[in-house]
Design a protein that fits this description.
Oligomer: single chain
Structural class: mainly beta
Radius of gyration: 38 Å
Number of strands: 58
CATH class of the domain at 109-148 and 526-681: Mainly Beta
Largest sheet: 24 strands, antiparallel, barrel
Number of helices: 1
Helix content: under 10%
CATH topology of the domain at 109-148 and 526-681: Immunoglobulin-like
Distance between the termini: 81 Å
Strand content: over 45%
Length: 771
């Protein structure tokens, strides 16, 4: 683009110069000084046009002139209409000459979030007792877990103890120290951990060191590609942005280019539609199809996991049995927003396994993933494997294709020598659904082995929400292996309320018919009851059995308690009964305070409300319970790294207290304890009269300024007529104070007694010590 900048010579000093109102693409840009030449051209200062948002090149002042001017006729892409009657200029510029507006569709991060790093600890326990017929003892299981956090470091260890009539066994399970680098989304683990290099590799339990990228450390970070929509409008317009017909946002756009970024979707093919309307009622619609997936990394991002350690043996049985040293790792890189490449590998003293992998987003046709691997095993030689996968999903249709193939010699670490190695796994499926017709899906799986039994499974299923409170499910499955069998199922589920469900189902498997009736009420997030009761009747040519399983659960303030009965009654009169009782809870420590709670499954918090009992505490708008006699309430389940909304009900606060805030957002680190204080300041006021004793004369200290020290801070307050004073929020105790009178400073002590009164009358106070 070429713009002509004119520097006014002395010959143009007599040109018409006046102030004109300028409109740029319909927007009022105010009045500016312009010059009208004899040939009809109009000159405007370049700085004024730049301030309006019109792109202009930089110019240099000419001889005899202080500022560069722009000839509007010389500007390509700009048309000019001059209205002599109104002294106004209407400029219409190509949108490319106007500023680009960038709008990010990611929700903004909340402000005022508490990111605690409190030292904390917790201990979880679970006790389970099982008895049989006539309450005969069958088993006792005890599980425990301890966690200690200090700053960015977390230590966790768990164990189990099992006692039965025939044996008793204690086993340590997992013990580790975790260090998270929150800003970099990286995690170090020293101790026991689960590692996987991905297909066609293996998952293995190691004791050693792990280093990995963990995007969930920041739940609001978008690591996968998102849709971006660009366009331009010539006039001030409104834009409505839709995703598959659902409006995301309505925006006001200034003339110029726009760029909508980070439009995200839960997955699959989506259509982003932008509808713009200008002041003249003209409407334009733009459609941008985009395939959303979280299996592809955003361009330039890395995802990795490197693990080295000794393989755990007899996990859950032996506490400290480790095998040979092994490694397991993968590293992926977002080469583009459509292609992610990587490498994976694993090995120990017997096996080495390595191979490349890639995932490709094929425009509108879904995602293709491919992984190749070669192995070298001691005593078995080399082997190879391939995994290929394709997935597609849109609003109604979903398809999947999967293939895994392995040579007989292919090996991974930690793999027990099977009687029959897998040769291939093939899977395919398609589903289609609409809100009115329901969803139907068909799946096929075929597993072949070297020297073992092959298995083929074909499944067809249908589901439909008949009404908002009624759902239907039906399934047919055919098994073909050493023998063949058919299975049919049909079921109805009714939801009389949001936490209650009633269901009935019929299943036929081979020659066995089974009917099940079940009622469920989910326990609340806070304190309260839940239950489940089911009756199952199975009939086959050999026998008929009725099974009754009622259970009840209570979520208490300090634990979870559950009781279950299982009774099996056969047509021949045989009976088998089993009773199951469990109790679980936790002990938590944070902020120098211990407390009992339900088991700590993730992070936890301790709400304090300044020794006020009975205050209702909410987590994410769900009532959890009330503060105890010391104004404390433990929250046993807070989401690590998420912004948990914790609030209290100010209606439960006595009238003589004031609250600084009733809602806090807390984002704790992994499995940590957070102190969440709500300051409830009790209203206190003191009043009295101040007098000074000067040269034996007692006088009222009227209209003076008193300085007082309270809790290390200086408090300044005035006196009124007759020396009266009034002061709020002064704690009990003796406070040093001073007042200046007659050019002299007088010092005294103000004594505030401990009392429950709202206003304490101190009476007359005399200042008589001068320095």
């Amino acid at each position: 683009m070429v713009l002509g900048l004119l520097f006014l010579p002395a010959s143009l000093q007599g040109a018409d110069t006046f102030y004109a109102k300028i409109f740029l693409n319909g927007e009022d840009k105010g009045e500016h000084l312009v010059r009208l030449l004899d040939d009809g051209d109009i000159l405007v200062r370049a700085a004024d046009l730049a301030a309006m948002g019109l792109s202009v090149p930089e110019g240099r002042a000419g001889e005899g002139d202080s500022e560069p001017h722009l000839s509007l006729k010389s500007v390509k892409g700009v048309s000019v209409v001059f209205n002599e009657k109104t002294l106004s200029l209407e400029l219409t510029a190509d949108p490319s000459l106007l500023p680009k507006r960038v709008i990010d569709f990611l929700p903004p991060r909340q402000t005022g979030v508490l990111y605690p790093k409190d030292s904390s600890a917790f201990f979880n326990y679970g006790v389970s007792y099982t008895a049989g017929n006539s309450f005969e003892f069958q088993g006792l299981d005890v599980a425990s877990e301890i966690g200690i956090r200090a700053g960015d470091f977390l230590f966790v260890s768990d164990s189990t103890y099992t006692h039965s009539p025939t044996e008793s066994r204690f086993a340590r399970l997992m013990s580790s120290v975790t260090y998270d680098r929150r800003e970099e989304m990286q995690r170090w683990i020293l101790g026991d951990f689960q590692a996987s290099s991905g297909l066609p590799g293996s998952g293995v339990l190691l004791g050693g060191v792990s280093f990995s990228k963990e995007f969930p450390i920041d739940p609001y970070y978008i690591y996968y590609p998102s849709a971006e929509v660009s366009g331009k409008v010539a006039f001030p317009s409104t834009a409505e942005v839709y995703l598959d017909g659902i409006r995301l946002r309505t925006l006001k756009l200034a003339p110029g280019e726009f760029d909508f970024r980070n439009i995200t979707y839960y997955g699959g093919m989506g259509n982003v539609t932008v509808v713009t309307r200008d002041p003249f009622g003209r409407e334009a619609t733009f459609r941008y199809p985009y395939y959303f997936t979280d299996t592809i990394l955003r361009e330039g991002l890395h995802n990795y996991s490197y693990n080295l350690g000794f393989q755990r043996r007899a996990f859950g049985v032996e506490s400290n049995q480790y095998g040979p040293l092994a490694f397991s790792a993968f590293h992926n890189y977002g080469l583009t927003d459509s292609l992610t490449i990587g490498v994976r590998g694993e090995g120990d003293d017997q096996v080495a396994n390595l191979g490349p992998q890639a995932s490709y987003r094929t425009g509108r046709a879904g995602v293709i993933s491919l992984s190749l691997a070669g192995s070298l095993a001691r005593g078995a030689g080399g082997g190879a494997a391939i995994v290929a996968n394709h997935q597609y999903q849109n609003r109604n249709l979903g398809t999947r294709l999967f293939f895994l193939g392995r040579t007989r010699e292919y090996a991974t670490i930690g793999e027990e020598v099977p009687t029959a190695r897998t040769r291939s796994d093939v899977g395919a499926g398609v589903s289609y659904g609409t809100g009115s017709a329901g969803t139907i899906s068909v799946d096929y799986a075929d597993r072949r082995t070297y020297g073992g039994l092959d298995l083929r499974i074909a499944t067809a299923s249908y589901s439909k929400t008949v009404r908002p409170d009624l759902a239907l499910q039906a399934t047919y499955r055919n098994f073909r292996g050493q023998t063949s069998a058919n299975e049919y199922f049909v079921g109805l589920t009714y939801y009389p309320s949001s936490d209650t469900a009633l269901s009935a189902g019929y299943r036929r498997e081979g020659e066995t018919d089974t009917v099940t009736l079940q009622a469920t009420k989910n326990p609340p997030v806070g304190e309260g009851w839940g239950y489940q009761a089911s009756v199952t009747r199975s009939e086959s040519p050999a026998a008929a059995v009725t099974t009754v399983v009622p259970s009840v659960q209570y979520n208490g303030k300090y634990g979870i308690y559950r009781g279950e009965y299982l009774g099996e009654y056969s047509g021949s009169g045989e009976r088998r009964e089993q009773y199951h009782l469990t109790a679980s809870g936790g002990i938590a420590f944070v902020g120098g305070m211990f407390g009992f709670s339900r088991p700590v499954t993730d992070s936890f918090g301790l709400v304090t409300v300044d020794n006020i009992a009975g205050v209702r505490v909410y987590q994410n708008n769900q009532e959890i319970g009330r503060t105890d006699s010391r104004g404390r309430m433990f929250l046993p389940s807070m989401g690590s790294y998420y912004e948990n909304q914790v609030s209290i009900d100010d209606k439960d606060i006595p009238m003589d207290y004031s609250l600084a805030e009733v809602r806090r957002l807390v984002s704790p680190p992994l499995r940590s304890g957070s102190l969440i204080p709500f300051e409830a300041k009790r209203f206190r006021a003191v009043t009295g009269t101040l007098k000074t004793l000067i040269d034996g004369e007692l006088k009222a200290a009227e209209y003076l300024e008193v300085r007082l020290m309270a809790e290390g801070k200086e408090v300044v307050f005035p006196t009124g007529r007759g020396g009266e004073f009034y002061l709020e929020d002064l704690p009990p105790g003796t406070h040093a104070a001073s007042v200046e009178s007659g050019g002299r400073r007088c010092f005294f002590e103000l004594r505030v007694p401990e009392t429950d009164e709202l206003i304490t009358e101190l009476g007359g106070v005399t200042c008589e010590e001068y320095r």
